[in-house]
Amino acid sequence: MLRQSKTSAVIALIFALAACSGGSQNAPVTSLPAATSSTAVKAPSSPRHGGLHSNEVIGGGPGKLQVLLGDTALPNGANLSAVNLAIEAILVSDASGNVTTVAEYSSPQVVNVLNYQNGNATSIGQGSVPETTYASLTIVVAAGQSNIVTASGTTESLTFKRNGASMSSAGFGTSTVTTGASASTSATAAGYGSGSVAITFKQPFAVDSDNAELSVDFNAFESLIPAGSVVASQTSLSVAATQLQGTISGNVSNTGGTAVQNAVVVAVDSNGNTDATTFTDSNGNFLLHTISSGTYSLTVYNQYTTAAGASITSSGNTNSAASFGAASGVTVTPGQNTGIGTITD
User: Are 241 and 137 in contact (CB under 8 A)?
Assistant: First the structure.
């Protein structure tokens, strides 16, 4: 249960300062940091709750899959020091519903996603899986051990909205479904239930080698919501094969050349899917990451509602439009940053 007495103040700290000046976006990294001791990856054990073992072949020959977790930074001025996710297991499911356990922990591995922002990531699990095409990735989280910490040191529980619909202005997060683990096909197969939530990203990906990697962006900017007297999460992930991902960077300024803060920048792929979102920092800079190679169009929002329902308003813009098309035909190349220069807002 959430502690009701402190959360109103916490909510104000998270989002009321969004228009204030904040930190800068970091440059993308090409080498990912090793897992810290708090997120050290253990070899997957036999599932403690039954279900499929990670070495049971349901497709082709055995391959290896490693899952990396990072985050898109919170809006400028957000006053949080930690968003802690207590990870119990990582599961994958193929098109026929067969489930494989990638990694599982005897006690949850707690990861502060705010430590891994703007293209940085840490390994949260790896294991042998059949080489095949998978329909979904599921991260099982112990809800009762997950929390947020304010800059002043106050710890509050994190409630996960289940079966909720994305409220994003751009439709971001529609590929992510959060359920009680007992209601999730993958998590049910592994025997998880009360006290666990299953965060499932439902888009196909292939494991076709012995060193496949998936990068996952928790995107706290989209996922956290101030909801009355609670702090809840409408978790909305971006996922990309590490070997195929790149980044897009640029700047948003007004007609006088002054930086526009907290403008939301959205990347839409050639199939119309919203693959990544971010916002501009105090210098107007932005970085879109965890985005697969391909061609994208960019839209800038001066008024934006996140997947969780938080309202973000830009400042410094001279364009009165709530949103506008900023660029099209932007090509993302694996391992490379595509700089698009300055967008006038």
Answer: no
Asked if 286 contacts 338 with a C-beta cutoff of 8 angstroms, the reply is no
Confirm if 252 and 271 have CB atoms less than 8 A apart: no
| Rounded average pLDDT over 163-171 | 88
Alpha helix segments (H runs only) across 200-256: 220-223
b/e sequence 256-273, b meaning 16+ C-beta within 10 Å: eeebbbbbbbbbbbeeee
* Residues linked to residue 82 through DSSP beta bridges, in sequence order: 149
Q: Over the stretch 102-132, which tens digit does the pLDDT of each residue have?
A: 999 989 999 999 999 888 899 999 999 888 8
What's the average model confidence in pLDDT over 217-228?
78
Question: Could you tell me if 236 and 200 are in contact, meaning their C-beta atoms sit under 8 angstroms apart?
Answer: no
- What domains are defined for the chain? 7-243 (no CATH), 244-344 (2.60.40.10)
Query: Which of the pair, 23 or 107, is modelled with greater confidence?
Result: 107
